[in-house]
Recover the amino acids of this structure.
């Protein structure tokens, strides 16, 4: 049996707010779980419960063969007893201590070896800053000091609460990759809270999607983003097109789904008469000018462009193809096809790119 | 100038400040973090000496510490002497009268420390007590020093409580402020004026120090 962190608990706040936490993660080696959800959905509370800073009213947390929390047996381990690394969103560096003092802070005197701290500072790219105070550092440097301070103790689990949220967009993207590389070197499991979709995709091995204090879905990035379990998850992970349809026939092991005035071929196990939500990611929609399709995609939808919205390097194209459909195309493609509002286009969608959620 | 009274006053102020530092820090820290619903009661009791006339406070202390009270009897049983009109009795009265001058600045300073810094420390494996000494106290020391200075100065200048509990026994309970009162009663204005000037200069210097400290802000 592999050692695992198994947590399932409910934290109740005065005023009736209820936060449910539920997750499972191997703890012997590096793997990164992202707690993903909108602001205020309870991600931070779940993290604080894991750290021992909040005491859930109900449930249990086990890490390997240690019990951190068991409300039935009245077991509660304090943060000091859990040996986890916790980096809060505010970082909470000690303002009266230097970088060196901050990093050395959590080490017992017997382990306070200059080399050990120097090594950690170097790993985190902080050499030369030992004698600076936190207010003399940039946001990215403060970030790394907070990480170094938690990692130098070799925790058995690292908890990070939106660690990149205080940074500007450019350094955020840069640090994201550095962060994963740095963390993987320590061989410890990481639980990472974020509301940023691209951060979640770039970092996660496993995603736990939360909304309104509840865990909605847990799985790999692929699973959660391409096969959301319900409409709420589909909306949270940013599936652009979510429309209601009905399965009208089965043909060649494909389902025919009527959506608005259009018909779609979908490769999912459903039965005739089922009411389903059709999920299509904008990135999976190809566009052709005019109404004559020649590509291999099984679904060729004729429609007309309603709006074009530039979004970074891409253009978001909203169309009416018998139902509202959204596509993302590059600026270049948009210019070459001379797309404009009101134009007739053909949208191409391959059958595996369409995901169905049964309406319950 | 009555040097015996001067030494006695200094002794009383130092002892009061030391005792309130030991008792006041935990009480103030508890007040600053507790969510106990009955906290307001404790806060009100701590602040009471601020608003009570010193004679009222002194009267209750006199009664409460006297030979007919349980506390007075217990003290008499243990030490063989009485509390009122002795230095220990004066000290007890002084500690209680000065409670708000120590605890309120302490508590305000602790409340201004970001709780998340303490949480970060706990998560780094450092006990709550060690966190208090390594994080909370270093970040709130200006407030703690202010509380200690206020206590010290206020003890030096205390009159009503001292007179009620301690009386006016030279070398035992006769402090500077009472010496001035005595001198004036005896129409010895020269001696009273001298002592008064010393107290005035001392108090002013200390308040200057306190406010100068208050201006100092830690770089955050």
């Amino acid at each position: 049996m592999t050692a695992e962190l198994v947590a399932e608990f409910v934290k109740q706040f005065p005023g009736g707010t209820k936060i449910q936490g539920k997750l499972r993660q191997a703890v012997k080696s590096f793997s990164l779980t992202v707690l993903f959800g909108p602001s205020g959905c309870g991600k931070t509370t779940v993290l604080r419960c894991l750290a021992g800073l909040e005491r859930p009213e109900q449930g249990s947390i086990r890490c390997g063969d240690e019990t951190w929390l068991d409300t039935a047996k009245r077991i509660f381990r304090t943060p000091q007893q859990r040996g986890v690394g916790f980096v809060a969103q505010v970082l909470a560096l000690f303002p009266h201590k230097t970088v060196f003092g901050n990093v050395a802070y959590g080490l017992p005197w017997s382990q306070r070896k200059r080399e050990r701290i120097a090594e950690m500072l170097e790993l985190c790219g902080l050499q030369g800053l030992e004698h600076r105070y936190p207010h003399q550092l940039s946001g990215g440097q403060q970030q790394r000091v907070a990480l170094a301070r938690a990692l130098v103790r070799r925790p058995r689990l690292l908890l990070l609460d939106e660690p990149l949220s205080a940074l500007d967009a450019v350094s955020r993207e840069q640090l994201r990759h550095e962060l994963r590389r740095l963390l993987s070197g320590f061989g410890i499991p990481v639980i990472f809270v974020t509301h940023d979709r691209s951060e979640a995709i770039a970092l996660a091995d496993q995603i736990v999607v939360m909304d309104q204090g509840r865990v909605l879905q847990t799985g790999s990035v692929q699973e959660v983003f391409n096969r959301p379990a319900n409409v709420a998850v589909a909306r949270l992970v940013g599936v652009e097109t979510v429309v209601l349809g009905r399965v009208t026939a089965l043909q060649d092991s494909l389902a025919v789904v009527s959506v608005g005035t259009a018909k779609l071929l979908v490769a999912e196990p459903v039965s005739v008469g089922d009411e389903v939500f059709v999920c299509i990611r904008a990135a999976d929609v190809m566009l052709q000018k005019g109404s004559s399709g020649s590509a291999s995609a099984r679904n060729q939808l004729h429609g007309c462009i309603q709006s074009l919205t530039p979004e970074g390097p891409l253009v978001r194209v909203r169309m009416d193809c018998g139902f509202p459909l959204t596509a993302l195309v590059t600026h270049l493609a948009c210019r070459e096809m001379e797309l404009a509002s009101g134009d007739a286009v053909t949208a191409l969608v391959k059958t595996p790119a369409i995901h169905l959620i049964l309406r319950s | 100038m009555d040097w015996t009274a001067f030494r006695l006053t200094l002794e009383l102020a130092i002892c009061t400040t030391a005792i309130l530092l030991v008792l006041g820090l935990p009480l103030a820290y508890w007040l600053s973090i507790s969510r106990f619903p009955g906290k307001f009661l404790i806060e009100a009791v701590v602040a009471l000496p601020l608003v009570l006339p010193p004679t009222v406070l002194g009267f209750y202390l006199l009664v409460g510490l006297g030979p007919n009270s349980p506390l007075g009897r217990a003290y008499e049983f243990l030490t063989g002497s009485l509390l009122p009109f002795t230095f220990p009795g004066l000290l007890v009265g002084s500690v209680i009268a000065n409670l708000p001058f120590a605890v309120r600045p302490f508590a305000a300073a602790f409340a201004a420390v970001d709780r998340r810094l303490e949480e970060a420390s706990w998560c780094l494996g450092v006990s709550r007590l060690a966190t208090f000494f390594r994080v909370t106290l270093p970040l709130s020391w200006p407030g703690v020093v202010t509380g200690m200075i206020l206590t010290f100065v206020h003890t030096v200048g205390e009159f009503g409580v001292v007179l009620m509990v301690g009386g006016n026994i030279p070398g035992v309970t006769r402090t500077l402020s009472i010496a001035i009162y005595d001198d004036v009663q005896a129409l010895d204005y020269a001696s009273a004026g001298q002592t008064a000037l010393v107290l005035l200069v001392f108090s002013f210097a200390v308040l200057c120090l306190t406010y100068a400290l208050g201006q100092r802000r830690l770089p955050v």
Remarks:
- The longest helix of chain B spans residues 3-33.
- Chain B touches chain A through 19 residues (CB under 8 Å).
- Residues 89 and 141 of chain B are 30 Å apart (CA to CA).
- Chain B has a mean pLDDT of 89.
